[in-house]
TrEMBL record, chains A, B:
Protein name in UniProt: Ornithine cyclodeaminase
InterPro entries to which the protein is assigned, alphabetical: NAD(P)-bd_dom_sf (IPR036291), ODC_Mu_crystall (IPR003462), ODC_N (IPR023401)
Pfam families associated with the record: OCD_Mu_crystall
UniProt superkingdom: Bacteria
Recorded GO CC terms: cytoplasm
Length: 318, 318
C-alpha cells in the first residue's frame, strides 16, 4: 500500500491534470456510471466524522475526514483525514492519500473548472471572500484558468489577510494582490467573485447593479442554513449551475432561493450538462459547488496512478 | 502515524492482554460510556463495504472492511481492511491496524472470554464447527482459557480440515486434534462447542439429551436468516448471553427463537451484566456474539499503545 502526502500530490500532478480529472468526474456524473451513497456524518462532542464512499467501474474508495472546530485554538488544521483507495477486484487497500490536501486540491480544481466554463475568457480580476485554506486553492486554480492580473481579498477576520496575502504571493508572483475593506469594494473591482465562508447570511451586497455581469463561484455554503449570495443575484440569472443534484437540497444558497421562489428548480442545471451543451445563457453567472465523493475518487486515482508509475510515496507493507 | 500489521499485533500483545481488553470493552458497554453508531453496510456488485465507527471518552476510530466473496477463487482473503485510530483531541490519524487480523484476534478473544465465564472450570475438550479463519482463532483462545486436551473439528467442506489441523498443530503442540465425520460425534465428544459457520439452518442435531450440560459459543450467525443452533438447545437454557443488545435483532439464532417463543426477551442478558452479576443459571450455556465496533476500538487502542511504547510498527510521515 502507498501513502501519499501533500508534498507527493504537489509533485505528482499538475494543476492542468487536476482540472482534467474534475472534468472527467463531471462526465462520469452525467453518465451515471458510478455509485455514490449519501455521505455519512457522525457527531462526537462538538466534532464531526465524515465518511464519503464512492464506487465507479474502475475505482473504489472512501474519504474519511474529521472536522474538529476547536483545532484552530491549537494551531492544528480543523479538517484532517485520509482517502482510502481499494483494489476494484479484491477490495485490498492500495493507497492512502492525505485527505485534507486532496480536499483542498480537488475543491480548488472544481472552482477552476467552474471559472473555465462560466467566466468570460478575458477576465483578469478575481475577488475572494473568506481567506482560508479552500480560498487559497481557489485562487491558485483561478489564476491557472484565466490570465489573472489582480486579486482582491476580504475576510471578516482582518488579521488573517496579511499572512494569507504573503503566502499567496509566494505562489502567484506576477499577480497584484489587494486587501479590501468590504465586499462592495471587492465586487466592484472583480470580474470573478469566489466565496468560501461558512456564513449564515449573504456576504455580498444585495445590489443588482453591482452584481450584474459578474461571475460567481460559491464554495462555502454546504448546509441549508448557510448562505453567501443575496436575493439580487438570482434576479440576474437565467440558470444556476451546480456540481451535484443534491446541492439543491444541501446548500442554503439554493434551498432558500427555491423556497422564496427567486429561482425555479428547472433553472438549476448540473455542471456536467453545461459541459456537454455548452450553452451559457446570461452574462451574470453562478456556479455553486457543495462537493462530492466522486471528485475525491477520480482525483485520488490520478494521483495514485502517477505515484505507482513514478515510484513515489511511502510504501507500507500490509 | 503508525501502521501495524498482523505480525506486529502478534508480537505486541499477549492473548491474556487481548482477553483483558475484551473484558474492559464489556464493562464500557455496560457503563454506556461510549458512542457506537450503527455499522454501515454498502453494497458494490456482489461485495460489501463495512464501516464500523466507535467513540469512547479516550479513544476514537473506525474499522473499514471490505468483504469480497469471490476472493476465495483468487486465493485472496475475503475480508480485508483497516482500523483507523484518531487522536481524541484533534482527530488526527494516529494509527492504522490490519483490519482482518484485528477482527480475527478480537473475535477469538470474545469467544475466549465467553468460555472463561460460562464454561465449567475443568473442561478439557472443545469442538469446532466451521474450519475458517475465525474458527482458528476461537480454538487458540479456547486453549488459553481452559486446559484443553482434545479438539474435535468439523466442516462441510472436508478438504479444508487436513490443512486446518496442520496449521492448528503448529500453534497448539500439546493438544490432540481430531477430525470428526459429523456434528453428532463432535457434540458427543466435546464439552465446549463453538460454531463459526454462515449456515442458514442449524448445524447441530436437534437432540436435547445430546446437547445437555454442554457450553455453546455462537460466532457465525450475524444476519436474521442465519442459524446455527437447533430448537432443542433453547429448552435447556435459563438464559442466553449476548455481546450486544442488537444481537437479538441481528442474529437468526436469537430472532427465530424469540419469534417462535422458544425463549423470551427477558431471558436474554448482555454478557457485561453476567460479568458483573456472575450468576450463571443453568449447566447448559449459550453465549452468542455478533461483534461490535467497541471491541475493535478497545483492542486497537491496546495494540497501538504498546506499539508506541515499544517503537514497533511502520512509521508513516503524514
Amino acid at each position: 500500500m502507498l501513502y501519499l502526502s501533500k508534498k507527493d500530490i504537489f509533485n505528482l500532478v499538475s494543476f492542468d491534470e487536476l482540472i482534467d480529472s474534475i472534468e472527467l468526474a463531471f462526465r462520469i456524473y452525467e453518465q451515471k456510471s458510478f455509485q455514490m451513497p449519501d455521505r455519512i456524518h457522525l457527531h462526537y462532542r462538538e466534532n464531526t466524522f465524515l465518511y464519503m464512499p464512492c464506487f465507479t467501474e474502475d475505482i473504489i474508495g472512501t474519504k474519511v475526514l474529521t472536522v474538529f472546530p476547536k483545532n484552530t485554538d491549537k494551531n492544528v488544521p480543523v479538517i484532517q483525514g485520509l482517502m482510502l483507495l481499494n483494489d476494484v477486484e479484491t477490495g485490498k487497500p492500495i493507497a492512502l492519500i492525505d485527505g485534507a490536501s486532496l480536499t483542498a486540491f480537488r475543491t480548488g480544481a472544481v472552482g477552476g473548472v467552474g471559472i473555465k466554463h462560466t467566466a468570460k475568457e478575458d477576465c483578469q480580476s478575481v475577488g475572494l471572500v473568506g481567506a482560508g485554506v479552500q480560498g487559497f486553492y481557489q485562487l491558485l486554480f483561478a489564476a491557472k484558468v484565466r490570465d489573472i492580473k489582480k486579486i482582491y481579498i476580504y475576510d471578516i477576520f482582518e488579521d488573517k489577510l496579511i499572512s494569507f496575502k504573503e503566502k499567496l504571493l509566494e505562489k502567484l508572483t506576477d499577480v497584484e494582490i489587494n486587501i479590501v475593506n468590504n465586499t462592495r469594494e471587492l465586487v466592484e473591482k472583480s470580474e470573478i467573485i469566489i466565496t468560501t465562508t461558512t456564513s449564515e447570511k449573504p456576504v455580498l451586497p444585495d445590489d443588482e447593479k453591482l452584481l450584474k455581469g459578474k461571475h460567481f463561484i460559491g464554495i462555502g455554503s454546504y448546509k441549508p442554513n448557510m448562505r453567501e449570495f443575496p436575493e439580487a443575484l438570482f434576479k440576474l440569472l437565467d440558470e444556476v449551475y451546480i456540481d451535484t443534484d443534491f446541492a439543491a437540497e444541501e446548500s442554503g444558497d439554493l434551498v432558500i432561493p427555491l423556497e422564496k421562489n427567486w429561482i425555479k428548480r428547472e433553472q438549476i442545471k448540473t455542471f456536467g450538462k453545461l459541459l456537454k451543451d455548452n450553452d451559457i445563457k446570461s452574462d451574470t453567472t453562478l456556479f455553486k459547488s457543495v462537493g462530492m465523493a466522486l471528485f475525491d475518487l477520480v482525483v485520488a486515482n490520478v494521483i495514485y496512478s502517477k505515484a505507482a508509475e513514478k515510484g513515489v510515496g511511502q510504501k507500507i507493507i500490509l
